[in-house]
Design a protein that fits this description.
It is a single chain. The protein is an alpha/beta fold and about 625 residues long. It is built from 24 helices and 17 strands. The strands form 3 sheets. The protein has a 7-stranded mixed beta sheet, with helices on both faces. It has a 5-stranded parallel beta sheet with strand order 1-2-3-5-4, sandwiched between helices. The chain has a 5-stranded mixed beta sheet with strand order 12-14-13-16-17, sandwiched between helices. Strand 13 (about 505-510), helix 20 and strand 14 form a beta-alpha-beta unit. Helix 5 runs parallel beside helix 6, helix 13 (about 320-335) runs parallel beside helix 19 (about 455-465) and helix 15 runs parallel beside helix 17. The longest helix has 19 residues, at about 25-45. The N and C termini lie far apart (about 60 Å).
Length: about 625
């Protein structure tokens, strides 16, 4: 390694940081930053958020006993320093690799990880559960939940804070305020926190007022005592609203999140509060690495990069599906002023940044609030607008009730652009988009589509703009497939596209599985099997007419989807053919009914049986065995 790790090498297990002297804290912080930059530049990962919480994490480990106390990280992508300080430094050589160290907290990795996280706005709820369980079990440990200011745009965080106000024992909430989630924060909470950050230090002002009052003969001391007894405290005089204290939570801060000694003192003070207490900490995302400081969104989740320049090692050579979505949205919005775009704190990730720049009055970033995004879209649709809700598959599942109840029950024309559908790779179980077919398939009236290539995504979007009702289009992460350009039959509701029409075996591939199915067909042809290839296009409604026709002249139907098998496309096909009395055999190729860990997409396809070799073997076994 190119840098010295004198202090870092002293950290081998939980609480080793307590053996260091205060004079070693700053050098340790610098070594941790150098270590993180070096490792993430090779393996990829979440960099900017982790660089911003180095001192905060050190202070937490110094102020609390991580063998006994419990620390919960909201989302968890900022837990790298926590992993280092709890003895997992060596794990960074396998960061986010298959069977390697996760980029998120995992209870099976270390007792220092109190709760598995991966989605936003959850840590206060989880921490409150741990605090109440502690009290019921008669324990005395501290519970600390860290949550970002961006995560406070999620309603679940407010539900938890409302509930936490009832607690009469200690529970510490650390608000890590770096003015960002992935993109810049939006809304009233962001403005409220900004007013606190930019205000004169009310703590200093409070002390000045107290000192002045105490100097008043006879009445001064009484006035101080009276003020201290008031429910909302003297802070009410200086901070408009005092939202947290008005909710029943004690508020401490704001505190410099890069001043370790000040943080430790504040955490010790927070530990003495009998109730829920919020420690408001101000940090800088990307601190210590200039490219990340300048472009925190780009370094939120990054692939391998050159340390000297911050530029990615792998150059992007082909457009991805998100790029295609963005281009069609922009072109269509010029022609249709009823088209509006909605995202949940992922303007750049969903490809809507250009839309925002060109049509700012028709772009809405609602923050980390997927449920609100969907019902907000429903409201827009009732007035004849055409809202496009662009959300990653793994996050859209948080809004299931709103999709069902507020959109589909009213048959509203809302379009769901389901990005990152299928296996996404290194972020692991919490981010794999492998459930959307199943959870959307259950909703009456919702049309489900998936394109075979980049041109079909464009065609499906235009079809969705003209369709009158709820419709979802799922597409994967990564470079858009540009094969099969010669096949571009018009999109017709509920109709598949026959790419190759033969007999014996029929491959019915849905969306991202088309390139794999094409390769499977080529291998089967080399083995002298007759093989049809169908681009399913629609998971709902099914092309029932084609399924009946295929069952007449094929011995084996093979469904292929990048989704869990339970409740997926293959099960719907099988159920239909069974209900209609067809005797053709169906082989379902899908992800097993299990969570999928982190790793490269190719490796995970092999592990889940979605690679060409595994599929061909299963088909041959089933076909010969009939």
């Amino acid at each position: 390694m190119a840098f010295v790790m004198d202090k870092l090498n002293k950290i081998e297990k939980i609480n080793d940081i307590k053996k260091l002297s205060p004079s070693e804290y700053e050098p340790l912080a610098q070594e941790i930053r150098e270590f993180l930059i070096e490792k993430v530049s090779v393996h990829g990962g979440h960099l900017a958020s982790n660089l911003g919480v180095v001192e905060l994490t050190m202070a937490l480990h110094l102020a609390f006993d991580m063998e006994h106390d419990q620390l919960i990280w909201d989302v968890g992508h900022q837990s790298y320093t926590h992993k280092i300080l709890s003895g997992r430094k060596e794990g960074f050589d396998t960061l986010r690799e298959f069977h390697g160290m996760s980029g998120f907290p995992k209870r099976h990795e270390s007792p220092a990880d109190a709760f598995d996280t991966g989605h936003s706005s959850t840590s206060i709820s989880a921490g409150l559960g741990l605090a109440v369980a502690r009290d019921l079990c008669g324990d005395t440990n501290k519970v600390i939940s860290v949550i970002g200011d961006g995560a406070l745009t999620g309603g679940m965080a407010f539900e938890a804070m409302n509930n936490a106000a009832k607690l009469d024992t200690n529970f510490i909430i650390v608000l890590n305020d770096n003015e960002m989630s992935i993109s810049h924060n939006v809304g009233g909470m962001s403005q409220y926190l900004d007013s606190i950050r930019t205000a004169d230090s009310y703590q200093e002002l409070k002390n000045d007022v107290m000192d002045s009052l105490q100097k008043i003969p006879i009445y001064g001391e009484r006035m101080v005592k009276r003020i201290r007894k008031t429910k909302s405290s003297i802070k009410q005089l200086f901070i408009p609203g005092m939202l947290f204290e008005n909710m029943g939570l004690t508020y401490l801060g704001p505190v410099d999140g890069h001043n370790i000694q000040q943080l430790i003192r504040t955490f010790k003070k927070a530990s003495r509060v009998n109730g829920a207490v919020i420690v408001h900490v101000i940090t800088k995302k990307g601190r210590g690495y200039l490219p990340a400081e300048r472009h925190p969104a780009r370094f939120h989740g990054t692939g391998a990069f050159e340390v000297e320049t911050g530029l990615p090692v792998a150059k992007k050579t082909k457009a991805d599906y998100t790029d295609v979505f963005a281009s069609v949205m922009n072109m269509s919005a010029k022609e249709n002023d009823r088209l509006v775009a909605i995202t949940a704190a992922m303007e750049t990730g969903t490809g809507l940044k250009r839309f925002h720049n060109q049509f700012p009055e028709r772009f809405f970033d609602v923050g980390i609030a997927e449920e609100h995004a969907v019902t907000f879209a429903a409201g827009l649709a009732t007035r004849g607008l055409i809202p496009v809700v662009a959300i990653y598959s793994t996050f859209l599942q948080r809004a299931y009730d709103q999709i069902l109840h507020d959109v589909c029950l009213q048959n509203l024309h809302v379009i769901f652009a389901v990005d990152r559908a299928g296996i996404v790779g290194s972020d692991g179980e919490t981010h794999q988009g492998i459930f959307d077919i199943s959870y959307l398939m259950t909703i009456p009236g919702l049309v489900l589509m998936a394109p075979k290539n980049k041109w079909e995504l464009a065609d499906m979007l235009r079809f969705a703009f003209d369709y009158d009702g709820p419709i979802a289009i799922r597409y994967p992460r990564g470079a858009a497939y540009d094969g099969l350009k010669e096949f571009r039959a018009p999109i017709v509701l509920g109709k598949s596209e026959v790419l190759y029409d033969e007999t014996d075996i029929a491959l019915l591939a849905y969306g991202s599985m088309i390139p794999t199915a094409l390769a499977v067909r080529e291998e089967l042809k080399d083995m002298h099997y007759q093989c049809s290839l169908i681009n399913a296009r629609f998971a709902k409604p099914l092309d029932e007419e084609l399924l009946l026709a295929l069952s007449e002249d094929h011995k084996l139907l093979v469904t292929l989807e990048e989704n869990v098998i339970t409740g997926g496309f293959g099960q719907q096909v099988t159920q239909f053919l069974t209900d209609t009395g067809q005797i053709v055999k169906v082989l379902q190729i899908a992800i097993p009914d299990e969570f999928v860990e982190q790793g490269s997409v190719d490796r995970l396809h092999e592990e889940t049986g979605l690679d060409v070799t595994s599929i061909v073997k299963r088909i041959i076994v089933d076909y010969i065995g009939m």
